[in-house]
Amino acid sequence: MTTTEMPAVSECTVTGCSYNHDGCHAYAITISGTNGAADCGTFIPLSRKGGLEKVVAQVGACSRSDCRFNAELECTASGVRVGPGADAHPANCLTYSPV
Ligand code: SF4
Fold first, then answer.
1. What are the residue boundaries of the structural domains of the chain, listed by start?
2. What does the alpha-carbon distance between residue 67 and residue 52 come to, in Å, rounded to a whole number?
3. What average pLDDT score do residues 2-9 get?
4. How many angstroms separate the alpha carbon of residue 62 from the centre of ligand 1?
5. Distance of alpha carbon 13 from its chain centroid, rounded?
6. Which residues contact 74 (CB under 8 A, 6 or more apart)?
7. Of 60, 61, 58, 48, which is closest to residue 20 (Cα–Cα)?
8. Which of 5, 73, 93, 97 to mutate to test the pocket of ligand 1 (most atoms within 8 A of CB)?
9. Cβ pair 31, 24 in contact under 8 A
10. Which residues line ligand 1 (CB under 6 A)?
11. H or E stretch including 98?
12. pLDDT for the residue numbered 34
């Protein structure tokens, strides 16, 4: 994988996010958090929907260096799923896999 290929957000079930209308419509998302579940840092629950018309969402950056798919703070998974997770944050990377 080259650094110009970003993993797709293959699924996002967080319907309360402004970028989610039949999938994630952000151009790219950032995964963050420092411990526990990996949070989607792009989640935003506004009163309006937004993002691109097409569903092309990718993982632009990920700070979870403790994940087995993370290399140099980028994600190397073939795709990630996002959904409600185990912690209080409403949107988590469900593909996160701590080493
Ligand atoms: S799979 Fe791992 S490296 Fe990829 S976005 Fe999720 S937490 Fe980050």
1. 1-94
2. 28
3. 81
4. 6
5. 11
6. 3, 6, 59, 61, 62
7. 48
8. 93
9. no
10. 31, 38, 59, 62, 64, 67, 69-70, 75, 77, 80, 93, 95-96
11. none
12. 84
CA of 3 to the centre of ligand 1 (A): 15
Bridge-based pairing state of the strands 74-75 and 39-40: unpaired
Q: Rounded CA gap, 16 and 55, in Å?
A: 17
Q: What would the DSSP string read from start to end of 11-70?
A: EE--TTSTTBSSSB--SEEEEE-SSSSPEETT----SS--S-SS---EEEEE--TTBTTE
| Rounded Cα distance, 62 and 39, in Å | 10
What are the tokens at 28? Answer: 């790219």
pTM of the complete model beyond 0.85: yes
| Residues 66-81: tens digit of each pLDDT | 999 999 999 999 999 9
Quick one: which atom of ligand 1 is closest to the CA of 97? 2
Asked whether 59 and 38 are in contact (CB, 8 A), the reply is no
